[in-house]
What we know:
Elements: E1 13-17, H1 32-44, E2 48-52, E3 55-62, E4 65-72, H2 80-89, E5 95-101, E6 109-112, H3 121-130, E7 136-141, H4 151-155, H5 161-182, H6 186-193, H7 204-209
Parallel strand pairs: 1-4, 1-5, 5-7
Antiparallel strand pairs: 2-3, 3-4, 6-7
Amino acid sequence: xxxxxxxxxxxxxxxxxxxxxxxxxxxxxxxxxxxxxxxxxxxxxxxxxxxxxxxxxxxxxxxxxxxxxxxxxxxxxxxxxxxxxxxxxxxxxxxxxxxxxxxxxxxxxxxxxxxxxxxxxxxxxxxxxxxxxxxxxxxxxxxxxxxxxxxxxxxxxxxxxxxxxxxxxxxxxxxxxxxxxxxxxxxxxxxxxxxxxxxxxxxxxxxxxxxxxxx
Length: 215
């Protein structure tokens, strides 16, 4: 008897996290989109993983909704060559893009349904391939380069400890926002942009005043 392999359920939403493949880029500012997908996978658990359409994809479930968490492996400036075939295959499936933004403070979020690339090569690639700037994008601030620093060097470096803590808080809220968008709650996700702003790590004496002991 031959068993026909069951086709997996189609995803209810495609979530693209922009970044660069390879161990050298894992903790760099430019890979914050991947950080958000990693947080979602941690929260939801991974049903299955695959490599397809020039990407690494983890399939997760949030209740009855199946999410495809997609990391393009094309390198940042060719991200559109991954995004396009996914959206072609699942033409009726909503999708959004999560990525880093150097114009915003570390950890700050911004959600838009359209807009320019703003100098981001990954977003430019997507806009060029689709010939439109109308798609949902969630930006996570990684901070501005210091005066005189090259932007290309800045985004390909890991953030310092203080910025990393703020970005990590932003990643948590970005994951919250993605789940709201997946549920069709765009307005609630927008409200999240202005709330729960990241706070600097408290100093030891401030923690003790709050009743928190240092270990």
